Amino acid sequence: MRWRNVKLIFHREVRDQLRDRRTLFMIAILPLLLYPGLGIGMVQMTALFEEQPRTVVILGADELPKSPQLLEGDRIAPGWFSLPGEAETLLVVTDRAKQSGGQSAESDTRQPLLQHAGKVRELSQKRDELESLLARNGDSKGRAERMRLERELDDVNRQLSEVFAAGGFEVLIAFPQGFAQRVARESKLIERAAANAEPSTDEQKTIVVYNNADKKSQLAYKRVKEALQTWEQAILRDRLRAAGLPETFPTPVNPQPIDLANKSEMSNSVWSMLFPALLVIMAVTGAFYPAVDLAAGEKERGTMETLLICPATRTEIVLGKFFTVMVFSLSTALLNMLSMGLTGKYMVSIGGGALSKVGDLAMPSFLALVWVGVLLVPLAALFSALCLALATFARSSKEGQYYLTPLLMVTMGLTVFCLSPAVEITPFYSIMPVMGPALLLKELIASPGSTEPLLYAIPVLVTSFIYSLLALWWAIEQFSREDVLFREAERFDLGLWLRHLMRDKEATPSFSEAVICFVIIILVQFYAMKDLQIAFLEASNSATRLRLQMIYLVATVGGPALMMGVILTRSVRQTFRINWPKPGMLAIAIVLPSTLYPLTIELMRRLDWFFPKLPAGAVKLLESLNDGNLPLWLVLLAFAVLPAICEELAFRGFILSGFSRSKRTWLAIVLSSMAFGIVHQIPQQVFNATLLGLVLGLLAVRSNSLLPAMVFHFTYNALPVLQGRVDVSKVVGTPLDWFVSVKQTGGEASLTYDWPTLLICAVVAALILRWLVQRPRKESQPLAKAQFSKSDRLPLTDANSSRRSASAEIVSNRQTD
Known about the structure:
The protein is mainly alpha-helical. The protein has helices at 3-18, 21-34, 96-99, 105-137, 143-165, 179-196, 215-243, 263-294, 296-301, 304-308, 314-350, 366-393, 397-419, 427-430, 435-446, 457-480, 482-485, 494-503, 511-538, 542-568, 572-575, 583-606, 616-623, 632-659, 665-679, 683-703, 707-724, 755-774, 786-789, 801-816; strands at residues 54-59, 71-72, 75-76, 90-94, 171-174, 740-745, 748-753. The protein has a three-stranded parallel sheet with strand order 4-1-5. The chain has a two-stranded antiparallel sheet with strand order 2-3. A two-stranded antiparallel sheet has the order 6-7.
């Protein structure tokens, strides 16, 4: 590859793009005109995702009145929330255990929280006293005394912020001494007044009618409601003064929230919501239109052939176009963020009302801005490569926009997900595309002085560049295929297409039919999930749940694949690899899963910190493995037999056969294993199933039979079922102690594999896998004629490298002359 050619193509494409007024308008002019008309407020997500319980410390819990009861155990009573489930999101820690002298392990873990809470309460009381002194004395005292009080107040505020941050809790509620007695005393006043008063018979109420669907009516109602509430409070105060009661009588709790956020923290909070979203959306938007113009637009203008006859390889052409798209993606994102930042700061400086709550809206720190530029590079590279690949596949600019619009929608969905306050960066999210850079940037801007988010910088950057290289490889592959570059426009007729499928059947499914099968499985599982969850909740026992799981597996995985194989293909035997394998392959199908099972179990145990927790429904279903009340045959049928049959028919049968039509064996195996992993949905199972899918695909291809894959699948799934029925405590004191250990977790004994077992399994598995990789395929694969029929159309294919070198020499000589 010659970088000089890449540079020439890059300069050519950049000059062409700069001549396009629409491109210049989208990149430079639109951000300067658009953002001054937009507000900076962001609508936060109302539906939180996997929100962890937040800790609330209550001091003076013994001072709470008995009725109505605020607490139920270690939770606030669900009746005080609009949604009862919100009570589960707050973990309450009280000082009752401390005052009662409890010495349990739970009280020992809560002791540091209570100690910090006591310090926060003392500092809060001191802060209130100083504020009262400043407000009461005003300018009556000397300036020196007032400055002393202000310095002391600033020092107390600083200490309060530090102690609260180190406390380990999110909210503190401190009830004053004698709170219950005061509530009871004021309640007696009510009872005494009610006994002497005549009962009221006036049932009339004030009615406020409005239309919540009309935005104007809704806004007017909010203002009227606020005015009515203020008026009502004034009337109530007059009545209380007339009755000789304190004004705090109707509000016995009267909480006083203390917001510890300063102006800098508020600014960082605003930018942490805006910059990640803008970074992602503008990066994909900036790559969208240039990619369509450089690839699909080149086909429409008829200049693709002229470009291909130049003395440059396909890779060099793609790299030149890729760098061009990447430059415009970077420019769009940077200019939009600059415009948004300056516009937002200016709007806050001249605005009032709600905008004044964010302070002066100071710009993020220099280090945070550096990270914006660092994270923008892999994001722009990823979107540029993806957009270029999709635009290359398109026949026209209109079709290219159709292909790229779903990419934009998916990106916006991921961005909105990352903006949720409940979503924080984790090891699992750090390796996800788009989400990792967005969440890392959000944490870096929100907490500029914290070093904890920097721990995720390496996995985020490494995985982002890997995704970018994969997308660029896909773009080069698309550009190297002449059947993609010179596709002709065609009209789609549903009736003709269906008749073609039924009349002109092929022996095995096509690549697109394999993709359609995978999409059907995903959609059927999605729409059946709700009914399955309801049925699981209504199931009376574990046996019924297992039967539901079996029906779900057959209906959503095995059924669609088998039906499509029978209807769409001419040879069911060839599609599903219905052949009798050699005995050696069956032996491998038994030995290999037995050696891989300890390795994968130990790997998943070591990566338990990396993945999110299993859903409650999955935990209940896995508990059926160790349920001794269920018959063993039923558990094996649900967890081993049916998954081995249904999933292998779908993924190593129909889908792998369709992917193999590309004549790229390893690509077909990888794609089928990824589809196999995605169907499992739960992150832990997706990771494990994808790794096992590679082995299963290799086994099916090398044996040219689906039976070894089924035996492998059955053996691997049956091992945990059989292990759960064995009393592992009997292993202690036997020679097996050299290979396994018994671990007690939650009162239950479980096996862990020691290093001798893992070493033996790793060696045996590596030898078998090496033999499978080096072993040739059993059936002969004829070369596709289409592979050569179009390769001679242009002189820039790999077969004509000598002609390309000669052209390069001519061009070089002309430049020298």
